[in-house]
Amino acid sequence: MTIATVPFDVPEIVAGAYQLRPLEMADAPELLLLLAEPSLSESMSGEAPTTLADVRAWLERRLERPHTRTGLSWTVRTAVGGALAGTVECHHVIEEESVAEIGYGTATAHRGQGVASTAVHAVTAYAHRALGIHRVEILHERQNLASCKVAAACGYHVEGTLRGAMRVDESFVDLHLHSHLATDLEGGPLAV
Predict the structure, then answer these.
(1) Is residue 190 part of a domain?
(2) Is residue 4 part of a domain?
(3) pTM, rounded to two decimals
């Protein structure tokens, strides 16, 4: 007998001046432009889509994750006008271990406006409260100071450096590891 797995719900989330909307195939043309931005494509470790067909394949992988209960993905849009300001995802979800990872990217035109920290706040709270995830992690390249600032602003704790943990082109780069536990919600920046 096969037990049916209930897919994760990927809700629209209102987060201050931004709306997190579930990814959909119709986002492909806008995402092609966003993901082509050098600061985002460089951090994607060889996964950066360069054609509309690549973006559609990238989207298909993300649209499958809720069905396999391994992740959820959103576009981050301005609440007024709906401009694409970035993306955020809760991925590498392992329910048995109660752990997940958050990844995000911000469009160049929207940097420094709180897009990433607002999205990470919202998705971290959703992962803890709605998915029941105990530990949420952020991993980023060591020299990415902006991501360190986002993690700190969202109450993530620095745990250290993972040496040579990610392949980029022909070399390996170090990653910073940050974590947020469900118990950090009480009295922390994500408390309500």
Answers:
(1) no
(2) no
(3) 0.90
